[in-house]
Amino acid sequence: MSGIIEEIKACVPGAGPVEVSYPEKGYHYALEASADTLPGLVGFFDEKRFYLECLLCTDYADYLELVYLFNTHLSPCRVKVTLKIDPQHPVAPSLSAIYASAYWYEREIHEFYGVLFTGHPNMAYLFLHDGIDHYPLRKANVPVSPEDQKRLDSFKPGEAEDTFCINLGPQHPSTHGVLRVVLKMDGEYIEQAEPVLGYLHRMHEKMAENRSYQQFLPNTGRMDYLGAMSFNLGYVLAVEKLCAIPVPDRAKFVRIITTELNRISSHLLWVGAYLADLGALTPFLFVFDDREQILDVLEGVSGSRLTYCYFRFGGLYNDVDDRFIAGTKAFVQRMWRRFTLYEKLVTGNVIFINRTKGIGTITKEQARKYGVAGPVLRSAGIACDLRKEEPYSAYNEVEFDVPIGEHGDVLDTYRVRIAEMENSLRIIEQALAKLPGGPFMAEKVPKKLKPPRGDVYQVVETPRGELGIYIVSDESDGPSRMKWRVPSFSNLMIFPELAKGVLLADAVAILGSLDLVIPEIDR
Amino acid sequence: MFPVKFALVEKVLDLARANSLWPVTFGLACCAIEMMAAAMSRFDLDRFGAGVFRASPRQADLMIVTGTVTKKMAPVLTTLYEQMPSPKWVIAMGNCAISGGPFVFEGQYNLVEGVDLLIPVDVYVPGCPPRPEALLEGFLKLQEKITGTRRFPRVESAW
Amino acid sequence: MDILNQFSSVLLFTIVAVLFTLIPIFIAYILAPRTKGAKTLATYECGIEPYGSAWIRYSINYYIYALIFIAFDVDILYLFPVALSYTRGGAMHEFYALVAFVLILALAVIYAWGKGVFTWKRKCSR
To answer: What is the per-residue pLDDT for A263?
Structure first.
């Protein structure tokens, strides 16, 4: 968006936005705000239809820095707004009145850093358990303040006469992992749904600070185990951007082939698991059969079936051989025929359509306020796919469509994901045809990386949506701060809104359609 | 006086229990996907009797702990274990359930390093995640533990 | 004693039915191992302590289903003697009388169906 610097300067005097080099940093503009200018800036971004992509906090030794990343859906224009806070009395204004997605981001920053957001409706703990006694992501060991001690036990519903609170608990076949949603129900209708997170908080961001860049590679596959290749890809791209490591063309094409195979396997599992939630248990068996073909192909080249760690900085772990290419071609042939099977089995099924049509409708404005991403966003009608908006690897050399839905309901998310699988097959065919020879790894990648001081932000499109990785480097061989902006976190934020007043069975259908993977939410 | 133990009846009961172990759906993390793959048509778990995965622990007698156990999840896990009727068994699947897995580091604040700190475990299946065949081998080992004999031949490694 | 002769098969049926349910419970009681943890007898709610009590006012929608069930339960009670009398050999007009009886009771369900009792509205806004 050209001219935005002038508009910001005109609208909010005192702000000094600068343009930065997008290929080096990952964002277009940076500006430093203060507690006075921040509300004006946020109002400006809201007017111009920006969405809050991410809100994170970094602990530099003498100050804490809040980083807000604003972006537009189509024609990306990423603005990084920073706010410095005093670490002794960390206070900042809350944005949750304007941007609904800030509600949980601020709760997360509060429990990990101790920053108090004034004007926030409910600063209860979101992730951490009751026995926590310090703020984990602070560099120094800062104990939990007495006011925060009272906030530790997060959800205590009151007694009411007509309604009752029930747990859609951590151990439930429909929550796809350890997600707990406390539902306040009036008979069969839900009055209020409140997710409680943190049952699988595996401290990835803290581990990133204690590990070197290479040592953190296996963690990326465990964060989203269904789309592990895309998480791997985002991480290596971010570090390659930070250290300016070139990647040979062969590696770029192989990366997108494997990532698209992973996308198909992730969407297939979603189809199976979602239909199992709705009660149709047969497609589950069919999709696992297809998945096994993909897993065989990927295992032959990367060594793992599920939590891949195939990419390295500057290329791949090892080269693809003829067996991989033959296997992929055979799979693609087979998969084209399987789509007619799924059409007959699922798509026209009258029970399926009745259970999913008109349920969980998301408007474009809601999608923007909550920052939803991925197929959920595209089902609402916004044709934003990061592989086309901000192409990375070799995506600008293959041709594919971005399917969108019309109504934003759950049936549209299903249709969008099936269409995405078809497009992934097209990408794989084109990439296989164009696969160049040559080296698969850049030469002279140093064993100990020495990145320059500064930060980068890299986005990739995972099967669930937009993944953002923000790395702050302090010239050592490990990151000083690594923040993962995961799509499931922002997708889950819209669930309490969509679940108000619906039947319990429909709420389960909505929750399944968001395609959540809990380890990436809990990180 | 109760429960009474008759040796021959115990043999028959052990055989019956071992060949119809019903797991409770307790998928926590990545290993859950491999458990699901083990239950699907390629690596069929149903032929060993573990066909139905029960959602409620009251109807199950096997708990396969697949994935990382965090401190927030620990009371939930022990509650569910206690709500299973006996006789009950536990398979710890994956490195995280055995000893914390790849998430153990200095300064960790949210991990239970191994599920055997909370509940008694019968069989450990290592891997990150273990292949479905490894889970099947764990199953056979559990059946061997219950009945005393192993029904299927041990597959010798080709190397 | 005459009554005992007439209903001896019913008495036998009752005794076998009761034993059929009690014997497996007894066998399980003497053969199965026993454990008791702190939470063994607690209500299952996905591993979490349940909130509040279960004795609250529930929505009226559930009550309607119970009402219709009760009506048809009484209907079935009236049909039991009919089942017993089939061996006697009946005339067609008895059959038509029975069909009329069942249809009149079914009118209640059709009325409820027409009134929309069986459809739950998808979204109720508060």
So the answer is: 93
Nearest CA to A157 among A181, A178, A179, A182?
A182
pLDDT, tens digit (0-9, with 9 covering 90-100), for C34-76:
888 787 888 888 878 777 777 777 777 788 888 888 888 888 8
**A300 vs A303: CA distance, rounded Å:** 6
Amino acid A238: pLDDT:
92
CB nearest B87 (choices: C33, C46, C47): C33
Q: Which residues contact A520 (CB under 8 A, 6 or more apart)?
A: A223, A224, A231, A464, A484, A486, A487, A488, A489
Q: Does B59 touch chain C (CB under 8 A)?
A: no
* Structure-token pair, residue A49: 């239809």
For position A175, what pLDDT does the model report? 64
The strand pairing partners of A522, in sequence order, are none
C-beta contacts of A394-400 below 8 A and 24+ residues apart: A394/A249, A394/A252, A394/A253, A394/A255, A394/A256, A394/A431, A395/A256, A395/A427, A397/A434, A398/A256, A398/A426, A398/A427, A398/A430, A398/A431, A398/A434, A399/A426, A399/A430, A400/A424, A400/A426, A400/A427
Q: Does A171 touch chain C (CB under 8 A)?
A: yes
Q: How far apart are CA A7 and CA A10, in angstroms?
A: 5
CB < 8 Å to B4, chain C: 30-31
DSSP-derived secondary structure letter, A399: -
CA distance A85 to A57: 10
Neighbors of chain B with 3 or more C-beta pairs under 8 Å = A, C
Q: Would an 8 Å CB–CB cutoff place A291 in contact with chain B?
A: yes
A281 touches chain B (CB under 8 A): no
Nearest by CB to B2, which of C30, C39, C44?
Answer: C30
Residue A117 near residue A93 (C-beta atoms within 8 A): yes
Name the helix (H) or strand (E) containing A140: none
Q: How far is B72 from chain A (nearest CA, A)?
A: 5
Residue with tokens 């509600």: A103
Cα–chain-centroid distance for residue A136?
A: 22
B8 has a chain C CB within 8 A of its CB? no
According to the model, what pLDDT value does residue A153 have?
Answer: 64
- How large is the C-alpha radius of gyration of chain B? 16
CATH C-level class of B22-147 = alpha beta
Contacts of B131 in chain A (CB under 8 A): 305
Output the pLDDT for position A431. Answer: 92
ipTM associated with this complex: 0.89
pLDDT along chain A (523 residues), means of 10: 74 77 86 85 87 90 89 86 88 88 90 88 84 85 78 66 80 79 86 88 89 90 90 92 90 92 93 90 90 91 89 89 92 90 86 88 90 90 89 88 89 92 92 90 84 91 92 88 92 90 89 90 87
With CB atoms and an 8 Å threshold, state whether A359 touches C122. Answer: yes
- Best of C46, C56, C65 to disrupt the A interface (most A CBs within 10 Å) is C46
Distance between B9 CA and the closest CA of chain A, angstroms = 35
Judged by a CB distance cut-off of 8 A, whether residue B78 touches chain A is no
**Domain spanning C2-115: which CATH class is it, in words?**
mainly alpha
Contact A200 B68 (CB under 8 A): yes
How far apart CA B20 and CA B50 sit, in angstroms, is 6
| Cross-chain CB nearest to C123 (options A165, A169, A501) | A501
What domains appear along chain A, each with residue ranges and CATH number? 4-149 (3.30.460.80), 204-522 (1.10.645.10)
Q: Are A374 and A461 in contact (CB under 8 A)?
A: yes
* Predicted local confidence at residue A2, as pLDDT: 65
Query: What are B88-108's pLDDT values in tens digits?
Result: 999 999 999 999 888 888 888
**C33 vs B3, B76, B82: nearest CB:** B3
- The domain segmentation of chain C, as residue ranges, is 2-115
Calculate the CA A476 to chain-centre distance: 27
Q: Which member of A180, A191, A506 has the closest CB to residue C122?
A: A506
